[in-house]
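Aim 2, interim progress. The first record below pairs a target sequence with its structure tokens.
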Amino acid sequence: MKRRTHLVATVVMALVGIATTHAASDDALTRLREAQALVEAGDHARAERRFSAVLSTLAPDDREARAWGHFGRAFARQQLHEAVEADPQTLRSIVEEYRLASMLDPSRYLVAANFNSGLILRRLGEHRLALNAFLQAATGNHAERPRFVLNAGREYEALGMAEQAADAYIRSIESAPGADEPRRALLALYLRHRWDERLLVASRSWSTEQRLLSNINYALMELLQRKNPAAERHHAEAGLILLATNHARVALSPSDFGRSTSLEYAKVAAVHPGLQAPLRALVAAYAAPPMAGHYFDGPDSHWWKEDDERRRTWSTVLLSLGNTYWLQVKHELAASYYEAAIGYSTPYRLQSWVDLEALAMLAATYSELQRMSRVQQLVSAVDRWVAEKAPVVDSQRRAIRDFYFYAGVAYTETVDYAPAEALYLKSLGFDPRFAEAHINLGFIYQGNLDLAGAIDHFERGLALDPTNPTANNNLGFTTLIHGDFVKAIKYLRRSHELNRALLVTINLGDAYRYAGDVDRALQFHREARDGIRERGDDVRYMSTRWRYNYMPLQAGDTRTIQHNILVSTKDEKRAFVHYALSLDETLAGNFEAAQSNFDLAKSLAADSAFRCFFANKIAAIGGFLRVPPRSKQWLDERRLELRRGLVCEGS
């Protein structure tokens, strides 16, 4: 409590010297300073009365003095009710007074008022409002910004948004490297979610992942050096194993990982012999896959069964090894380790969260291997298990939710939307607040041309996870192909801020083009071109497959957007970017650059499907933009060239 008081008092004190410039009388200023002095002395009851008395004498147009008075009184009241039971109405009235102070003089009181309001809203259990308040406080460069961000992280955690909480804790640590509180919060979050790969992937960017892992590693090493109860040691050990495989994901190269991580984990294994085998196996699996057998004899080996008490830890290793090979796009190997993790010799016994998590990843792996009959078998097995096990305990709900989600993804990838929809709905049955399931349902409904349903689920996903880049991109693209370019730009810009993936960058450039802002369109399409050059082998930047709808030919055209194209290869994605640049350069009057990009794009994706698709892109320009005559002539010629010898609907 003392630290919280110090924070707010410092903010108030910093404003006193500035606040003498307004038009209040000398007497009013003197009494405000006296009230402020009472706050600093900790006499909050008298301070509240003094601020109230001053406020009753101030003129309505003396905004700065009134702001000082309202902020001071709200602060004094907050401190009076800090250690005692207070009714919600009283607390909300304090929040309202902070709001009034910030409205009267936002330059001086907005930051402190938001932070203090956040503390009160947290006390009321209104975590989403508290989160918004802390995020507002953290928008500036205030000296206490690391603590504002830390508190935002706690609210993300209270709302079940683990990835966002982790990112907030990391930003707090990086802003104040010497602070222990955010690092402890990050470690506690990691240990609570140590089985949740998506928390660790933190797929916003490679740099985010490196930051997350380095901070968790620091805290875990510190934890392992203490004398801890056995249960806590076991959690830390299991956490360290997952950390090892996730370090592999962000290594600059396999050799870099082999050099740095081998040394690091050799030291840990020397202190904790029980970790030696799994750590060496993980290092070998990523650093030099052909050498993995030297340490680990493959999924049929039984070394992990040497100690039954560590069965769960060894299963975690197998799961982690499967994830490592999954990220190396070695799906056959990944499947073998997932199968070993769930004890494939006794199929689908589903005894622990590891079994269920491995089963979820196995469904995703079978999807990549196009083994849909296996996915169907897994779904039937889990359906039976859930029916027999009911009611399912909370510790299993998340893993089952994930299984149904990944099985739904498998059917989505094969464009078999009916079972995919059913599986996403099952996933939501185990967690109604699962944003990703809502987002994928939106994709299903978009594919079925149910615009209202798509927007409904995209918006639900965004409400649950406002910083989800996929939800923002999908909602932005849906509004783009329905001709609402201003709204599309809003969502796509947000997605681009969160994750500058190739697809998002292309979509944002397209939205600016059709909105008539050619300079911005060129900016983002050039960024996409440069991104492919620099990150063309990064699957998380390039993504896997895109299903891309045609553009409408005019406002209200819902027929043309029913056509779509599947984009899979790197060259096809490069073609997308260069076709986009050719259109932008034409509209900007740069015909030589336009022709160069057009010719390159056509050579990269010359089949009829792509020619018809880009003919549609050209046709759509005429439906929404006024095109200069020379540019129109160039576009018409290119459209005829693309359509030559073909029957292209929608272009």
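The second target in this work package is listed in the same format:
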Amino acid sequence: MVFTPSPVKAFDQIVTDIVNFVQSRNPFIDVGANEIYRDILVESQADQFARLWENQNFSEQIQSLDNILSLDADGDYKSSLFQSLGVSVDTLQSWIDGYVENWGNNFSIPRRDAAFATGRVIFYTGTRPTVNVIVALGTQVATEGQEGVASVLFKTTQSATIFASNADAYFNLQTGLYEVEASVQAETAAKAGNVPVNTVSVVRGAVPLKVINRTATVGGADQESNADYIARIKDAFTSNFRGTLTGIRSLVVGYGSQVKDAYVAGTGDELEARGAGSVDVFVIGEQPNSFIESFSFVDQNDEYGLTKKPALSIGSVVGSSTGELPSAYYALDKGEAATTSGSSRGTDKIVWQPAEATKEVDLVLIVCKLTCPSALPDYITGNPLSPRIFVFRDGVEETSKWTYSDDTAEQRVIQATDYDSNAFYTVLLMPVVGDILTVTYWYNNLITALQGVIEEDENRILGQDVLVREATPVSIDVSLTVEIDSSTTPDAARNAVVTVITQHISTVSLGAEILQAEIVDAIFGDVLGVVNVVIPFTRLCRAGEAGTEDIQLENNEYGVAEVITVNAVQV
């Protein structure tokens, strides 16, 4: 939209009008150029009147949100305006921002502050710890400063420890590393805190561990722009009637800066699967809280429903007699297919899962998780195997057929009476029956809080069951080639483009399209030295799929950058 200001009287026109007025009253007064009467009585007053015209015009324009939005986007008009008003560019912009905020205050809708990116990192080592390794609360980690991209600093928002006495519990079968997870938050609230996978790799401080982020950090945002703020204010105009879908959305997105976006699915919407009279509100946003609760272990088929939902991740499972269990042996099941998944009414639970399943399996490596250079772990005891270990062949339990041989020459051998090299073997490690399991986990308190707001008497909708749910993150893969000028190094361009793409995807709203054209615009707008982006991309698709077409997200989905590959070629 092009801003069209109301007509104003310019300085020259005002001078002409004053001269004509004076001469109509007394033609003998000389008001010609460079005459004293003209300097003192005409032009000095014309200058002030011209400024008043500009002020009046500006005051008229800010009575309309659409006009403010257009004015704010019109650089040429703002340039002429700050010169006419005799103020700096920054002062004029602060006036415009202030007028928008005044509009928002009329509806009790404050501007959203910049938001901190959050995520999870893995602290790891390839050497079995012999002493406790502690990652303190507030430990700083960072991306590595690279050519073209500044380092981004994070701090842990929880402490984490690898206990030497139970080090095997921290061993990851898939990576061959001792690992412990911790949540992190960017030190600075900004969109720049949204960084790609495998980029947080620097530990600051005396922590004898390395670090990596296996998922992108998300949620970082700059202070809300005038355009986005005005859009939210205008939503309020159409949402004063409680009980409408628009009203519900306005209530949710107005809750606070943690809510990035929301979509309301009512009866008839394909995303509403709970039936007539039901409304689902899908939300982007997190407010991680930790919780601890305990269960009594029964058997490997038992499942343990969590009290606080929706759960985000499991921190640890510790048995009263068996110690901390390896994370590879349990998983968080959020019941993704359920119509209440991702809500405070979800079926989130801990389930037991096999450590590994493979043809021609070497059960020593599965059960030990190591080559066990000196002895098998403590939980393998006696002959036959400890009651904590269950062995399955093609899904059928046959633990009794397996024994541990403590022959000194073969002290790492686990033997079977009829081992089948063509079978599928899986192994489960369980606590002792009756063991009390203490579970520490993280849940999304934002969803719980929003559900509470919806159910307050003043917000409750008669005849409607409104359920707040987490929106679904969709991992996006991008691969492309950029051509750069000879003064730009490939590494600098590559690093900058990866960052821009990651941040662009993270700001796409629910149900939006991820467009090649918009990614190209973002690259040209933020990365110096790029002269061409090759179209079509080599890859633009949901992770695990193939394709180069623009991606249409569902209304309950938002994008998260997964694998971003950039080939930078000098031309």
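Residues 357-384, 407-413 have pLDDT under 50 and may be disordered. This observation will shape the mutagenesis plan for the next reporting period.
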